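Supplementary Methods, section 5.1.

A reviewer requested that the exact input to the structure prediction be made available. We therefore reproduce it here, unchanged from the version used in the analyses.
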Amino acid sequence: MAAVTVGLLHPGEMGSAVGECARAGGARVLWVSEGRSSESRERAQGAGLEDAGRLSLLVGESNVILSVCPPHAATDVARAVAAHRFAGVYVDANAVAPATAREIASVVAAGGAAFVDAGIVGPPPRRFGTTRLYLAGQAAGRVGALFAGTPLEAIVLDAPPGGASALKMAYASWTKGTGALLLAIRALARAEGVDQALLAEWERSHPDLRDRAEAAAGRNARKAWRFVGEMEEIAATFAGAGLPDGFARAAALIYQRMARYKDTQAPPAVAEVAEMLVKEPTLPDVDPGARP
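The structure derived from this sequence is encoded token-by-token as follows.
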């Protein structure tokens, strides 16, 4: 897609990598520095993004706006863009429930924009074959063309808006949900004094679970604060389909307790996380609106 300007909101760890892929595909990519952290500035500069300064200027220059933010902020970001009467293509690539995606579609449509529902599966796209961008909506093909030949593989679904979000929710309910479950199991075994016995049994019957639990602590601890809203959106997705949502809500509570690790220098071991979950069940004060 030639001569396209993409407005990226906002360049976190995932967003900056997605923006870099859009640049590699030939697009000009803008971001907004106003009110953002020094870490966001560093990521944006490293990805070669152009600073539009203010949201109104980004909206005025962009053909496509791509929202990649924590799920709790997704609707507010859409409202802020719609308030400037954006009339291009608005892509919501956040981990939200299908109902939330459709709400966002209504918000941006009222402002004059077309809507594309998107879901990212995989890590920040820096290597080929690792990360997929699922897209749904009439303009999905146009958005997918932005990433042709880049490490972010765009896959257009034969589904209306909400379909890409539903796929993301189904996928993440396994990856993040089972991680929280493993950590809760280790905490339970520790609380009951059978942790070592459990590990010995795992070695015999499920030899991969010990490493998976360690990985759940090491990979997720510093990002757990972001997973709270995502698990709540997953719960809403299950409830919307008439399915039990309690396990997703329980996972959200596990990740909320782990939010204390957000700024830790080194990721904790699973034993430390398990002990924290047992000894300090009171939820910490977490600012869900904290900007990455």
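DSSP finds twelve helices and eight strands in the chain. These observations are discussed further in the main text.
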